[in-house]
Amino acid sequence: MDHLSGDTTDGPPGQRITLSSCLQGGPRAMHQSYQDAMAIVAKYGKSDYFLIFTCNPKRRKITENLYSGQNSPDRPDLVSRVFHRKLEVLQDYLLKKHILDRVVAHVAVMEWQKRGLPHCHMLLFMSADGNPRSVEQVDSAIQAFLLDPNENNRLFDITMRRNRSPGSLYGQLKVFQEIPERLSGNDQCRCRRLPKI
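Structure tokens predicted for Helitron helicase-like domain-containing protein (197 residues):
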């Protein structure tokens, strides 16, 4: 449409148009979301957990649906759909199944990296009885472990295949397998010049 030829009836050029807050990504929507987040912080205090949920471009559901010669950045619609489905599953575990205990409020912000992969920053506000108060409670909520290769060899192989660099999980696992078992956990870290945890 051309304003000069009279195709529109929006008024004279240069007229100020105010976008409503329902336009996602607009300045009013961002300001309103910020105000909502600050209201949650004012009511519940500081957050108890901060999660970053990232997208895996090599996920099987993404790679199987690419055409030949395509990469995941070529299909942002597919990547976004798979990511949002996985995010819904995570939120279901956190908010409905209460795997970390009861969440009374949460704030989630979606962002896209320059290469086109989405990720989510999430703040979780826990109930008073589920609020982690000690280091041991935080350590019990944050766990990372490898599957037993005898019980589930396929998933163990996938984990090892994706973590082959020296600084990765596989490289550190090889280092720890070489350390004598008589050393305690802190001595193991100092023995191989790994950071003390």
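Residues 76-96 form the longest helix (21 residues).
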